[in-house]
Amino acid sequence: MRATVVVPVLKSRGRGGQTESASTRTPESRLEEATGLAQAIDLDVVNGSIVPVNDPRPATLLGTGKIEEIKALLDERDSGLVIVDHPLTPVQQRNLEKEWNAKVIDRTGLILEIFGRRASTKEGTLQVDLAHLNYQKGRLVRSWTHLERQRGGGGFMGGPGETQIEADRRLLQDRIIKLERELEQVVRTRQLHRAKRRKVPHPIVALVGYTNAGKSTLFNRITGAGVLAEDMLFATLDPTLRRMKLPHGRTVILSDTVGFISDLPTHLVAAFRATLEEVLEADLILHVRDMSDPDNQAQSSDVMRILGDLGIDEAEAEKRLIEVWNKIDRLEPEVHDTMVQRAAGASNVVAVSAVSGEGVDTLMDEISRRLSGVMTETTIRLPVDKLALLPWLYDHAIVDGREDNEDGSITLDLRLSETEAAELERRIGNGPKPAKEDWER
C-alpha cells in the first residue's frame, strides 16, 4: 500500500512567549524513524512531511491549510494511507479520514500493527491482541446505521435495546477479559520458570535498548544463536534466553528483550509487563546504544525513562547497568578512536561492534568482573563419592588449577563468590542433599 508519513511538530510556549519544540527529538530524526516503522510492515512510503503545529486543533490536530495541502499531495501521489507520527484522539482520526478520504493511523496504531506482524509465540500474540483491543475500545464507530436501535422485549411497546456500538463494546470487553485471564496464566508460568532458574542460580544478563540498536546481533555474536537480526525496526519481538559461558567458564543466562521506542504506547507497556519483568529479574543489564545514530542521546533517555517506569531507578541502574556503545564500525576513524578512548575511561561503558566483534572480549571480561562480586579463593579436595559436583563447580566457580590424584580424588584451586562458597560448603558437607537435577547440572 502507498503511504504518506506526516510528522506534526507541536510547539510549546517558553519563557517570554517564545515558541519552542515540545519534543527533544529532531523533526528529521522523527520523520526517518516513522518512515522506518512504516517500511517495517512493507508499506511503500511515497511522501514524508514535517508539519509545524503552533495551535493544535481539538477536532483535527492540524490547521485547515495544512489539511488541504496534504490532501493535494495524497491525490497527486495516489496515496490511500496516512501515518500521523503523533497520538490522535478517535475524533481527530475520524475527521482526518473524512477530510483526506484515506485511511489514517497514528503512531500507536502503527506500532501495534508492527507488533502484530512480529509476534510469533502464543504469549506474544496474546499480549499484542490485548493491547490492540484496549486501543480499539475507544475507537468504535457506528457502521450499522440501519440498525440504529434494536427493540427490547416483545412487540412495539418494549423499551429501546442497546445500540449496535454498545453491543460491539460489550463483545470487545468480553474478549479483553478472556485475554487478561490467559495472560495471568502466562505470568504464573514465567514466575515458575524464574523459580526453577533460581534453584540453579545462574546469573541473568538482560539486553535492553532502543529498537534497531543491534541487540539481536550482539546476542548472536555472544551466544552463537540464530536469532533474527536485520537492519529493521522491531525485527524481533518475542524474548529469547540462552545459556552462555563467560571467559573463565562461569555459566550465565543471556536474555534478549523487545526493543524500546520513544512514546511507547501505554497499552503495550501494560500488555508486555510479563515479558519486561525479565529485565527486573536480571542481575546485570546491558543497555545497547547505536552510537552511529545522531539521535542516540535522546534514544538513551527514552530507554532509561521506560526502565524507570518498570521500577529500576537511577541508583539501582548505576549498580546493575553497563552501557554498550554499539556500531562503532560505522564511525569515521577519528570519531571511532575518540569513542573507544571515552569508553575506556568510563567505569560502566564498553565500546563494541557486534558485526566485526571489536570490543566483545572486553565486554565479556567486564560482565565477568561485575558478576563475580567478592571473590573467595580456596583449594578443595573432592573425594570419589563427590565427583558429581564437578559440573556444578565448573559452572559456578573459576577453576585456576586441577590435580587428579592417584586415589581417584581431585584437588581444585577455586575462585568463587561468597554466596557460591556457602553453597559449595553445603553440598560438600552434611547439609541437605541437592535435588537430582541440581547434581546433574
From TrEMBL:
Record keyword ATP-binding present: no
Oligomer status and interactors: Monomer. Associates with the 50S ribosomal subunit.
Subcellular locations according to the entry: Cytoplasm
Domain Hflx-type G: 203-375
Residue ranges that the Swiss-Prot or TrEMBL entry lists as coiled coil: 162-196
HAMAP family: GTPase_HflX (MF_00900)
Protein name: GTPase HflX
Swiss-Prot/TrEMBL keywords: Coiled coil, Cytoplasm, GTP-binding, Magnesium, Metal-binding, Nucleotide-binding
SUPFAM superfamilies: P-loop containing nucleoside triphosphate hydrolases
Function according to Swiss-Prot or TrEMBL: GTPase that associates with the 50S ribosomal subunit and may have a role during protein synthesis or ribosome biogenesis.
NCBIfam families, A to Z: GTP_HflX
Assigned protein family: Belongs to the TRAFAC class OBG-HflX-like GTPase superfamily. HflX GTPase family.
Species this protein is from: Rhizobium bangladeshense
